[in-house]
Amino acid sequence: MKRMMKALLLTCIMATSVLSGCFGSEEEEEVVIDKGVFDFEIGNRTWYHYPGGIDAVGNSSNLSGNNIPFYSTSSYYGIGMSTFEPTMGITSTGNLYITSWGNGNSGSTAIVQCSNMVEMTSISDYSCVDVYGAQPPVANSNDPYVYVDPWTDRIMKFDMHALGGMTVEWSDDEGASWVGPSIATGYSVQDHQTIASSPYGGILHETLWVFCINGNWPAPLCSASQDGGFTWGPELPGAPIDCQSGGLSAHIIGAENGNFYRGQIGCDGEGYSMYKTEDGALTWSEHVLPTEESGTADTWNAEEAQVDTDSESNVYAMWMGYDNLPYFSYSVDDANTWSDAVMIAPSHLKGTGFPVVIAGDPGRVAFGYIGEDGDGLWDGYISVMTDAFNETPLITTVQVNADSDPLDNASPTCGYERCGGFGDFIDMQIDAYGRPWLALSHNPNGDTGIFGTLTNGPTLYGNLTALTEIPDGGPQTL
User: Fold this and answer.
1) Which CATH number applies to 2-93+188-477: 2.120.10, 1.10.12, 2.60.40, 2.30.30?
2) Please, which residues bridge with residue 260 across strands?
3) Strand-pair partners of 127
4) Residue 187 contacts by C-beta under 8 Å, 6 or more apart in sequence?
Protein backbone atom coordinates (compact mmCIF):
# COMPACT_ATOMS: atom_id res chain seq x y z
CA MET A 1 0.00 0.00 0.00
CA LYS A 2 1.13 3.54 -0.74
CA ARG A 3 1.08 4.78 2.84
CA MET A 4 2.86 1.68 4.13
CA MET A 5 5.55 2.06 1.47
CA LYS A 6 6.08 5.63 2.59
CA ALA A 7 6.41 4.50 6.18
CA LEU A 8 9.01 1.87 5.30
CA LEU A 9 10.95 4.39 3.24
CA LEU A 10 10.93 6.84 6.08
CA THR A 11 12.22 4.24 8.51
CA CYS A 12 15.42 4.23 6.46
CA ILE A 13 15.50 7.97 5.83
CA MET A 14 14.86 9.06 9.39
CA ALA A 15 17.18 6.53 10.97
CA THR A 16 20.13 8.20 9.24
CA SER A 17 19.00 11.83 9.53
CA VAL A 18 20.63 14.27 11.92
CA LEU A 19 18.66 16.46 14.27
CA SER A 20 19.77 19.59 12.46
CA GLY A 21 16.61 21.47 13.40
CA CYS A 22 16.70 20.99 17.14
CA PHE A 23 18.38 24.26 18.00
CA GLY A 24 17.10 26.68 15.36
CA SER A 25 16.42 30.33 16.13
CA GLU A 26 13.02 32.03 16.22
CA GLU A 27 11.96 35.54 15.23
CA GLU A 28 10.23 36.04 18.53
CA GLU A 29 11.55 36.09 22.08
CA GLU A 30 12.22 32.64 23.53
CA VAL A 31 12.14 31.32 27.08
CA VAL A 32 14.84 28.89 28.18
CA ILE A 33 13.47 25.82 29.94
CA ASP A 34 15.84 23.33 31.56
CA LYS A 35 13.62 20.81 33.24
CA GLY A 36 13.80 17.08 32.57
CA VAL A 37 12.80 16.21 29.01
CA PHE A 38 12.20 19.88 28.16
CA ASP A 39 15.90 20.68 27.85
CA PHE A 40 15.44 22.99 24.85
CA GLU A 41 14.18 26.47 24.09
CA ILE A 42 10.43 26.95 23.89
CA GLY A 43 9.18 29.84 21.78
CA ASN A 44 6.08 31.84 22.66
CA ARG A 45 4.13 30.28 19.77
CA THR A 46 4.59 26.69 21.01
CA TRP A 47 2.70 24.96 23.84
CA TYR A 48 3.28 21.52 25.36
CA HIS A 49 0.19 20.31 27.16
CA TYR A 50 -2.04 17.39 28.02
CA PRO A 51 -5.75 17.02 27.16
CA GLY A 52 -7.83 19.76 28.68
CA GLY A 53 -5.05 22.29 28.16
CA ILE A 54 -3.09 21.10 31.23
CA ASP A 55 0.53 22.32 31.11
CA ALA A 56 3.06 19.52 30.53
CA VAL A 57 6.29 21.46 31.09
CA GLY A 58 5.76 21.52 34.84
CA ASN A 59 4.66 17.86 34.96
CA SER A 60 6.71 15.57 32.75
CA SER A 61 6.13 12.36 34.73
CA ASN A 62 3.92 10.92 31.97
CA LEU A 63 6.45 11.51 29.19
CA SER A 64 8.27 8.41 27.96
CA GLY A 65 8.39 6.08 24.96
CA ASN A 66 6.69 7.77 22.02
CA ASN A 67 4.93 10.21 24.34
CA ILE A 68 7.85 12.64 24.44
CA PRO A 69 8.36 16.28 23.44
CA PHE A 70 10.29 17.49 20.41
CA TYR A 71 11.62 20.98 19.84
CA SER A 72 8.84 22.41 17.68
CA THR A 73 8.41 25.64 15.73
CA SER A 74 6.14 26.68 12.88
CA SER A 75 5.54 29.08 10.03
CA TYR A 76 3.50 29.54 6.86
CA TYR A 77 4.21 30.03 3.14
CA GLY A 78 2.11 31.99 0.64
CA ILE A 79 1.03 30.58 -2.73
CA GLY A 80 0.87 33.98 -4.47
CA MET A 81 -2.87 33.71 -5.26
CA SER A 82 -6.13 33.98 -3.37
CA THR A 83 -8.00 30.90 -2.21
CA PHE A 84 -11.52 29.95 -1.20
CA GLU A 85 -12.37 26.82 0.81
CA PRO A 86 -8.78 25.61 0.38
CA THR A 87 -8.48 21.90 -0.22
CA MET A 88 -5.05 20.41 -0.81
CA GLY A 89 -3.06 17.30 -1.70
CA ILE A 90 0.57 16.15 -1.79
CA THR A 91 2.08 13.74 -4.32
CA SER A 92 4.86 11.28 -3.47
CA THR A 93 7.30 13.54 -5.34
CA GLY A 94 6.74 16.25 -2.73
CA ASN A 95 4.63 18.67 -4.77
CA LEU A 96 1.84 20.40 -2.85
CA TYR A 97 -1.46 21.27 -4.57
CA ILE A 98 -4.15 23.75 -3.52
CA THR A 99 -7.22 25.29 -5.13
CA SER A 100 -7.42 28.96 -6.15
CA TRP A 101 -10.93 30.10 -6.99
CA GLY A 102 -11.26 31.94 -10.32
CA ASN A 103 -7.53 32.46 -10.91
CA GLY A 104 -6.99 29.84 -13.63
CA ASN A 105 -6.92 30.31 -17.38
CA SER A 106 -10.05 32.03 -18.74
CA GLY A 107 -11.21 32.56 -15.15
CA SER A 108 -11.33 28.84 -14.30
CA THR A 109 -10.40 27.37 -10.95
CA ALA A 110 -6.61 27.20 -10.69
CA ILE A 111 -4.85 24.11 -9.35
CA VAL A 112 -1.73 25.62 -7.80
CA GLN A 113 1.36 23.43 -7.60
CA CYS A 114 3.99 24.44 -5.03
CA SER A 115 7.33 22.70 -5.64
CA ASN A 116 10.50 22.27 -3.53
CA MET A 117 8.72 23.02 -0.26
CA VAL A 118 9.24 19.79 1.66
CA GLU A 119 13.05 19.95 1.52
CA MET A 120 13.68 23.69 1.13
CA THR A 121 16.75 25.25 2.75
CA SER A 122 15.74 28.79 1.73
CA ILE A 123 12.32 30.26 1.03
CA SER A 124 13.64 31.15 -2.42
CA ASP A 125 13.75 27.41 -3.14
CA TYR A 126 9.99 27.01 -3.51
CA SER A 127 7.69 28.27 -6.25
CA CYS A 128 3.96 28.07 -6.91
CA VAL A 129 2.31 27.98 -10.35
CA ASP A 130 -1.11 27.11 -11.77
CA VAL A 131 -0.84 23.74 -13.54
CA TYR A 132 -4.45 23.50 -14.70
CA GLY A 133 -4.00 23.92 -18.44
CA ALA A 134 -7.01 22.09 -19.85
CA GLN A 135 -8.26 23.50 -23.17
CA PRO A 136 -11.00 24.46 -23.11
CA PRO A 137 -10.99 24.81 -19.31
CA VAL A 138 -13.97 23.87 -17.21
CA ALA A 139 -15.70 27.05 -16.05
CA ASN A 140 -14.94 28.39 -12.58
CA SER A 141 -16.48 26.34 -9.80
CA ASN A 142 -18.74 27.55 -7.02
CA ASP A 143 -16.87 25.23 -4.67
CA PRO A 144 -13.39 24.23 -5.93
CA TYR A 145 -11.99 20.95 -4.57
CA VAL A 146 -8.70 19.11 -5.19
CA TYR A 147 -7.69 15.69 -3.88
CA VAL A 148 -4.56 13.60 -4.44
CA ASP A 149 -4.92 9.82 -4.37
CA PRO A 150 -2.27 8.62 -1.86
CA TRP A 151 -2.00 5.26 -3.64
CA THR A 152 -1.63 6.35 -7.28
CA ASP A 153 -0.80 10.10 -7.13
CA ARG A 154 -3.80 10.87 -9.36
CA ILE A 155 -4.78 14.52 -8.87
CA MET A 156 -8.57 14.86 -8.93
CA LYS A 157 -10.17 18.25 -9.65
CA PHE A 158 -13.78 18.19 -8.49
CA ASP A 159 -16.04 21.16 -9.31
CA MET A 160 -19.58 22.15 -8.43
CA HIS A 161 -21.39 24.40 -10.91
CA ALA A 162 -24.18 26.80 -10.01
CA LEU A 163 -25.50 24.42 -7.35
CA GLY A 164 -26.82 22.23 -10.15
CA GLY A 165 -24.20 19.68 -11.17
CA MET A 166 -20.60 18.51 -10.85
CA THR A 167 -17.64 17.69 -13.05
CA VAL A 168 -14.49 15.68 -12.40
CA GLU A 169 -11.09 16.01 -14.13
CA TRP A 170 -7.80 14.34 -13.29
CA SER A 171 -4.09 14.35 -13.96
CA ASP A 172 -1.62 11.46 -13.64
CA ASP A 173 1.47 13.55 -14.46
CA GLU A 174 1.62 16.25 -11.79
CA GLY A 175 -0.76 18.53 -13.68
CA ALA A 176 1.07 18.47 -17.03
CA SER A 177 -2.07 17.12 -18.75
CA TRP A 178 -5.70 16.66 -17.75
CA VAL A 179 -8.39 14.11 -18.61
CA GLY A 180 -12.10 14.87 -18.57
CA PRO A 181 -14.37 16.36 -17.62
CA SER A 182 -16.69 13.54 -16.67
CA ILE A 183 -20.15 14.29 -15.33
CA ALA A 184 -20.29 13.23 -11.71
CA THR A 185 -23.94 13.74 -10.90
CA GLY A 186 -27.26 12.83 -12.41
CA TYR A 187 -29.65 15.36 -10.89
CA SER A 188 -29.87 18.44 -8.72
CA VAL A 189 -27.03 18.94 -6.28
CA GLN A 190 -27.00 21.61 -3.59
CA ASP A 191 -23.64 22.08 -1.92
CA HIS A 192 -20.65 20.84 0.06
CA GLN A 193 -19.10 18.16 -2.11
CA THR A 194 -16.21 15.94 -0.98
CA ILE A 195 -14.23 13.18 -2.73
CA ALA A 196 -11.71 10.49 -1.75
CA SER A 197 -10.25 7.14 -2.83
CA SER A 198 -9.23 3.84 -1.26
CA PRO A 199 -7.50 0.64 -2.43
CA TYR A 200 -10.79 -1.24 -2.14
CA GLY A 201 -10.25 -2.21 -5.76
CA GLY A 202 -12.14 -0.55 -8.54
CA ILE A 203 -13.08 -3.00 -11.30
CA LEU A 204 -11.25 -1.03 -14.01
CA HIS A 205 -8.85 1.04 -11.89
CA GLU A 206 -6.39 0.46 -9.07
CA THR A 207 -8.38 2.52 -6.58
CA LEU A 208 -12.07 3.04 -5.91
CA TRP A 209 -13.38 6.62 -5.87
CA VAL A 210 -16.34 7.92 -3.86
CA PHE A 211 -17.85 11.39 -3.64
CA CYS A 212 -20.62 12.67 -1.37
CA ILE A 213 -22.75 15.80 -1.72
CA ASN A 214 -25.60 17.61 -0.02
CA GLY A 215 -28.37 16.60 -2.42
CA ASN A 216 -32.13 16.79 -2.22
CA TRP A 217 -32.24 14.20 0.53
CA PRO A 218 -32.42 14.08 4.36
CA ALA A 219 -28.78 12.83 4.40
CA PRO A 220 -25.83 13.23 2.00
CA LEU A 221 -25.89 11.37 -1.31
CA CYS A 222 -22.81 9.43 -2.44
CA SER A 223 -21.64 7.93 -5.73
CA ALA A 224 -18.74 5.60 -6.63
CA SER A 225 -16.50 5.21 -9.67
CA GLN A 226 -14.93 1.85 -10.50
CA ASP A 227 -12.90 3.22 -13.43
CA GLY A 228 -10.93 6.08 -11.91
CA GLY A 229 -13.52 8.78 -12.54
CA PHE A 230 -14.66 8.17 -16.14
CA THR A 231 -18.10 7.02 -15.06
CA TRP A 232 -20.06 7.24 -11.82
CA GLY A 233 -22.74 5.04 -10.31
CA PRO A 234 -26.11 6.19 -9.02
CA GLU A 235 -26.28 8.65 -6.14
CA LEU A 236 -27.29 6.59 -3.12
CA PRO A 237 -27.94 7.65 0.49
CA GLY A 238 -24.64 8.09 2.34
CA ALA A 239 -26.25 6.99 5.60
CA PRO A 240 -28.81 4.42 6.79
CA ILE A 241 -31.95 4.80 4.71
CA ASP A 242 -34.02 6.34 7.53
CA CYS A 243 -31.28 8.80 8.63
CA GLN A 244 -32.33 12.42 9.18
CA SER A 245 -28.86 13.96 9.60
CA GLY A 246 -29.14 16.73 7.03
CA GLY A 247 -26.98 16.88 3.94
CA LEU A 248 -23.84 18.76 4.96
CA SER A 249 -20.94 16.34 5.50
CA ALA A 250 -17.33 16.79 6.52
CA HIS A 251 -14.49 15.57 4.25
CA ILE A 252 -14.79 11.92 3.27
CA ILE A 253 -11.66 9.73 3.55
CA GLY A 254 -10.65 6.26 2.38
CA ALA A 255 -8.72 3.83 4.58
CA GLU A 256 -6.01 1.27 3.79
CA ASN A 257 -8.49 -1.54 4.44
CA GLY A 258 -10.93 -0.16 1.87
CA ASN A 259 -13.44 1.42 4.23
CA PHE A 260 -14.67 4.96 3.64
CA TYR A 261 -15.65 7.29 6.49
CA ARG A 262 -17.34 10.65 6.81
CA GLY A 263 -18.38 12.58 9.94
CA GLN A 264 -21.60 14.48 10.52
CA ILE A 265 -24.44 15.23 12.90
CA GLY A 266 -26.19 12.07 14.11
CA CYS A 267 -29.13 10.47 12.32
CA ASP A 268 -31.39 11.65 15.14
CA GLY A 269 -30.20 15.23 14.64
CA GLU A 270 -28.22 15.11 17.89
CA GLY A 271 -24.54 14.71 18.75
CA TYR A 272 -22.00 13.65 16.11
CA SER A 273 -21.62 10.34 14.34
CA MET A 274 -19.16 8.65 12.04
CA TYR A 275 -20.62 7.03 8.93
CA LYS A 276 -18.84 4.02 7.40
CA THR A 277 -19.16 2.03 4.20
CA GLU A 278 -17.45 -1.32 3.73
CA ASP A 279 -18.92 -2.07 0.29
CA GLY A 280 -17.88 0.88 -1.86
CA ALA A 281 -20.64 3.34 -0.89
CA LEU A 282 -23.56 0.99 -1.55
CA THR A 283 -24.60 0.96 2.12
CA TRP A 284 -23.53 2.95 5.18
CA SER A 285 -23.69 2.36 8.93
CA GLU A 286 -23.84 4.97 11.69
CA HIS A 287 -21.32 4.93 14.58
CA VAL A 288 -22.11 7.43 17.34
CA LEU A 289 -19.19 9.50 18.64
CA PRO A 290 -18.68 10.08 22.40
CA THR A 291 -20.02 13.65 22.62
CA GLU A 292 -21.84 13.34 25.95
CA GLU A 293 -19.31 15.56 27.72
CA SER A 294 -18.31 17.88 24.87
CA GLY A 295 -21.70 18.53 23.35
CA THR A 296 -21.80 19.97 19.84
CA ALA A 297 -20.99 23.41 18.51
CA ASP A 298 -23.86 25.83 17.93
CA THR A 299 -22.26 27.44 14.89
CA TRP A 300 -22.56 27.37 11.07
CA ASN A 301 -20.32 24.26 10.86
CA ALA A 302 -22.01 22.38 13.69
CA GLU A 303 -22.79 19.51 11.32
CA GLU A 304 -19.17 18.50 10.84
CA ALA A 305 -17.06 15.88 12.58
CA GLN A 306 -13.77 15.46 10.73
CA VAL A 307 -12.07 12.08 10.26
CA ASP A 308 -8.89 10.43 9.04
CA THR A 309 -7.27 6.99 9.27
CA ASP A 310 -3.64 6.00 9.84
CA SER A 311 -1.43 3.56 7.92
CA GLU A 312 -3.07 0.62 9.76
CA SER A 313 -6.67 1.89 9.31
CA ASN A 314 -7.20 3.10 12.89
CA VAL A 315 -9.77 5.90 12.86
CA TYR A 316 -9.37 9.41 14.33
CA ALA A 317 -12.28 11.83 14.78
CA MET A 318 -12.25 15.56 15.58
CA TRP A 319 -15.15 17.93 16.27
CA MET A 320 -16.02 21.21 17.96
CA GLY A 321 -17.86 21.09 21.31
CA TYR A 322 -20.47 23.41 22.79
CA ASP A 323 -17.60 25.53 24.16
CA ASN A 324 -16.25 26.00 20.60
CA LEU A 325 -13.09 24.06 21.46
CA PRO A 326 -11.75 21.00 19.57
CA TYR A 327 -12.33 17.45 20.81
CA PHE A 328 -10.79 14.14 19.74
CA SER A 329 -11.53 10.42 19.94
CA TYR A 330 -10.08 7.36 18.23
CA SER A 331 -11.17 3.86 17.28
CA VAL A 332 -8.99 0.78 16.74
CA ASP A 333 -11.89 -1.40 15.56
CA ASP A 334 -13.22 0.30 12.43
CA ALA A 335 -15.34 2.88 14.29
CA ASN A 336 -17.32 0.28 16.24
CA THR A 337 -16.11 1.60 19.62
CA TRP A 338 -14.46 4.89 20.56
CA SER A 339 -12.08 6.17 23.20
CA ASP A 340 -13.25 8.79 25.69
CA ALA A 341 -13.27 12.23 24.10
CA VAL A 342 -10.58 14.73 25.14
CA MET A 343 -10.18 18.45 24.49
CA ILE A 344 -6.96 19.05 22.54
CA ALA A 345 -6.40 22.85 22.48
CA PRO A 346 -3.98 24.76 24.74
CA SER A 347 -5.55 26.55 27.69
CA HIS A 348 -5.22 30.12 26.36
CA LEU A 349 -7.68 29.62 23.50
CA LYS A 350 -11.25 30.83 24.00
CA GLY A 351 -12.70 29.69 20.70
CA THR A 352 -11.76 27.63 17.65
CA GLY A 353 -13.21 26.76 14.24
CA PHE A 354 -12.63 25.01 10.90
CA PRO A 355 -11.46 21.62 12.26
CA VAL A 356 -9.43 19.15 10.19
CA VAL A 357 -7.44 16.04 11.16
CA ILE A 358 -4.74 13.97 9.43
CA ALA A 359 -2.97 10.79 10.62
CA GLY A 360 0.33 9.12 9.73
CA ASP A 361 1.53 5.93 11.42
CA PRO A 362 -0.47 4.49 14.37
CA GLY A 363 -0.84 6.93 17.24
CA ARG A 364 0.60 9.86 15.28
CA VAL A 365 -1.97 12.45 14.39
CA ALA A 366 -2.15 16.19 13.65
CA PHE A 367 -5.11 18.52 14.06
CA GLY A 368 -5.60 21.81 12.23
CA TYR A 369 -7.91 24.69 13.18
CA ILE A 370 -8.07 28.44 13.66
CA GLY A 371 -8.39 29.93 17.12
CA GLU A 372 -8.59 33.14 19.14
CA ASP A 373 -7.64 33.94 22.71
CA GLY A 374 -10.34 36.49 23.50
CA ASP A 375 -9.08 39.41 21.41
CA GLY A 376 -11.16 38.58 18.32
CA LEU A 377 -8.05 38.00 16.18
CA TRP A 378 -7.85 34.57 14.53
CA ASP A 379 -4.65 32.54 14.12
CA GLY A 380 -3.77 29.20 12.54
CA TYR A 381 -2.98 26.24 14.82
CA ILE A 382 -1.56 22.74 14.44
CA SER A 383 -1.73 20.32 17.38
CA VAL A 384 0.28 17.09 17.18
CA MET A 385 0.20 13.83 19.15
CA THR A 386 2.91 11.19 18.73
CA ASP A 387 1.22 8.71 21.09
CA ALA A 388 -2.51 9.26 20.72
CA PHE A 389 -3.31 5.91 22.35
CA ASN A 390 -1.57 6.92 25.58
CA GLU A 391 -3.80 7.48 28.63
CA THR A 392 -2.24 10.94 28.97
CA PRO A 393 -1.08 11.91 25.48
CA LEU A 394 1.29 14.83 25.11
CA ILE A 395 -0.04 17.47 22.72
CA THR A 396 2.36 19.85 21.02
CA THR A 397 0.53 22.88 19.66
CA VAL A 398 2.04 25.56 17.43
CA GLN A 399 0.63 28.83 16.12
CA VAL A 400 1.76 29.13 12.51
CA ASN A 401 1.51 32.94 12.30
CA ALA A 402 2.86 35.65 14.60
CA ASP A 403 0.54 37.53 16.96
CA SER A 404 1.13 40.69 14.94
CA ASP A 405 0.13 38.87 11.73
CA PRO A 406 -3.35 37.35 12.32
CA LEU A 407 -5.11 35.33 9.63
CA ASP A 408 -8.30 37.32 10.22
CA ASN A 409 -8.67 40.67 11.99
CA ALA A 410 -12.03 41.84 10.63
CA SER A 411 -14.52 39.38 12.09
CA PRO A 412 -14.43 38.55 15.83
CA THR A 413 -16.59 35.50 15.05
CA CYS A 414 -14.51 34.28 12.09
CA GLY A 415 -14.19 30.72 13.39
CA TYR A 416 -17.93 30.33 13.76
CA GLU A 417 -19.10 31.47 10.33
CA ARG A 418 -18.19 31.71 6.63
CA CYS A 419 -15.12 33.88 6.87
CA GLY A 420 -13.11 35.28 3.93
CA GLY A 421 -11.08 32.69 2.07
CA PHE A 422 -11.86 29.99 4.63
CA GLY A 423 -15.36 29.61 3.17
CA ASP A 424 -16.82 26.40 4.58
CA PHE A 425 -13.69 24.37 5.31
CA ILE A 426 -9.91 23.99 5.22
CA ASP A 427 -7.73 20.92 4.60
CA MET A 428 -4.61 19.13 5.83
CA GLN A 429 -2.18 16.48 4.50
CA ILE A 430 1.17 14.87 5.44
CA ASP A 431 4.19 14.73 3.12
CA ALA A 432 6.43 11.69 2.65
CA TYR A 433 8.78 12.87 5.42
CA GLY A 434 5.95 12.94 7.95
CA ARG A 435 5.51 16.72 8.06
CA PRO A 436 1.90 17.99 8.33
CA TRP A 437 0.78 20.83 6.03
CA LEU A 438 -2.34 22.89 6.71
CA ALA A 439 -4.16 24.77 3.91
CA LEU A 440 -5.34 28.16 5.17
CA SER A 441 -6.34 31.63 4.01
CA HIS A 442 -4.60 34.87 4.99
CA ASN A 443 -7.70 37.08 4.92
CA PRO A 444 -6.06 40.48 5.65
CA ASN A 445 -3.82 39.94 2.62
CA GLY A 446 -6.69 39.52 0.17
CA ASP A 447 -7.57 35.92 1.09
CA THR A 448 -4.12 34.73 -0.01
CA GLY A 449 -3.73 30.97 0.15
CA ILE A 450 -1.03 29.79 2.58
CA PHE A 451 0.40 26.49 3.80
CA GLY A 452 1.08 26.32 7.54
CA THR A 453 3.46 23.68 8.87
CA LEU A 454 6.05 22.65 11.46
CA THR A 455 9.48 24.09 10.70
CA ASN A 456 10.78 21.82 13.48
CA GLY A 457 9.01 18.98 15.23
CA PRO A 458 8.40 15.22 15.22
CA THR A 459 7.82 13.16 12.10
CA LEU A 460 4.46 11.43 11.74
CA TYR A 461 5.88 8.56 9.64
CA GLY A 462 8.62 6.00 10.28
CA ASN A 463 11.01 6.09 13.24
CA LEU A 464 9.97 8.74 15.76
CA THR A 465 12.67 11.35 15.15
CA ALA A 466 12.92 15.07 14.52
CA LEU A 467 12.01 16.51 11.16
CA THR A 468 14.77 18.25 9.23
CA GLU A 469 14.43 21.97 9.83
CA ILE A 470 12.99 24.16 7.08
CA PRO A 471 13.35 27.98 7.04
CA ASP A 472 10.77 30.42 8.38
CA GLY A 473 8.30 31.89 5.92
CA GLY A 474 5.64 34.27 7.17
CA PRO A 475 4.68 37.70 5.71
CA GLN A 476 7.76 37.81 3.47
CA THR A 477 6.18 35.02 1.39
CA LEU A 478 2.92 36.92 0.79
Assistant:
1) 2.120.10
2) 254, 277
3) 115
4) 215, 216, 235
